Request: fold
Amino acid sequence: MRTTVIASAMLLLACDGGGIAGAGFDRKAVVEEAETYQAFVAPFVRESISPTCDKDIEQHFEQMFRQFRANYPRIEGQAVHIELGNTVAWYRNNLFEVQTDGKSVITEQLPAAFYMHPMSMGIHSVGGREIIMISNVSRATTGLYFVGIYGTDGTPYYKQVLSAADVWDVRVTEEHIEIVGHCDTRQISFEEPNNRLQRAVRDKVMAWTPLLGTASNVPKWKCCSNHLNREGRRDEHYDCWD
Reply:
């Protein structure tokens, strides 16, 4: 982890300005808190990582969410009105908060390492869900990024501290989000609610199958075209949700 962080620091130094703030070092305890942050991935979130060593990838920093429907490059101590009705967001003392009509929707306390830069935020519709995505980078010599994804109702979907080398840009489509790094791309998508129901039905069926005996003519459930059909052939692949 430290090797990656040092390399990331070299990439980020120009962003921090290269002066005392950029070249300084966080206390060991601050760095360790961020590096050991407990990641969270909701059960309906799918994450895959693929190598993408593309030398043409550019780091975008505060413009990470420029492809999102709503892009807020700098969320700081002053409340910023965002596109969700009577809703504001701010980032103060490592606390990111979103309030609607005076009531907290998102309250996220980031590790102490993420004190140097404003929060960046985007709002978009992905996989049929309205999402808020945020990112914040530590000082260059610590070389870490906090990335969070939430539903607009405040439900946490994804929270992770990544190496700065893993977060150069964010791309978004109607189906998924891509966190593009120097040599890896994380693709994040959301399982449809009906697929979750199918998975639950599949698990129930598979749990009961041993009780039905080993007769080859016992009909089984097969997933086909996003719905369940009866299928009696023995050489069929039934576990097609994974």
About this structure: Residues 1-21, 212-242 have pLDDT under 50 and may be disordered.
